[in-house]
Amino acid sequence: MSTERAYKVFKIENGTVIDHIKSPLALKIIEILHLQNNGIISIGMNFDSDKTAKKDIIKVENVYLSKTETDLIALFSPTATINIIKNGEVIEKRLLEMPDFVFSILKCPNPTCITNHFHDCDTKFEIFKVNEKTTNARCVFCERETPVVPEMIK
Ligand code: CTP
Ligand code: ZN
Questions:
Q1: Which residues contact 127 (CB under 8 A, 6 or more apart)?
Q2: What is the assigned CATH class of domain 15-94?
Q3: Does the beta carbon of 19 sit less than 6 angstroms from any atom of ligand 1?
Q4: How far is the CA of 82 from the centre of ligand 2 (A)?
Q5: What is the pLDDT along the chain (154 residues), one digit of tens a residue?
Q6: Could you state, in order of their start, the residue ranges of all structural domains in the chain?
Q7: What number does CATH give the domain 101-152?
């Protein structure tokens, strides 16, 4: 079975496992959580899964991601699950909750928005869950509301 295979290939002693990520978003998630400089990371992409057609998985060794960090994943892949591993055991299974506001990581799709005219201008979006498949983000500067898509990542 695919889960058994993933388990065999990448079992970790300590750290965070982000499982059931909608393919092919693993690399985007590594980017938005700034995981690339955080030690050993194993990435599996396109595993078969029950929950989504194909899933990705990320295992970050010796790093315990905070709930604020992991909830950002809900923007792009609400089906993802977080497993905190200590001494080889899963000690916490964390479900994702949609954040109310998101700072910095998204760019506004409105070309005339002030946030697109100043290089170091931080963005801020209010997040609304529309339905199981769609989440909208509303820019607090220009008020434009659009569905969140991975292309909006800065
Ligand atoms: N895992 C790991 N290292 C460990 C223990 C678990 O990398 N020492 C990983 C597994 O590979 C799996 C995830 O953490 O991707 C969750 O592990 P587990 O709860 O054992 O798997 P499942 O029962 O399949 O959990 P779920 O159905 O919630 O995904
Ligand atoms: Zn805007």
A1: 75, 98, 99, 100, 101, 102, 135, 136, 137, 138, 148
A2: alpha beta
A3: yes
A4: 31
A5: 555 555 555 799 999 999 999 999 999 999 999 998 888 999 999 888 765 578 999 999 999 999 999 999 999 999 899 999 999 999 999 989 999 999 999 999 999 999 999 877 899 999 999 998 899 999 999 999 999 999 999 8
A6: 15-94, 101-152
A7: 2.30.30.20
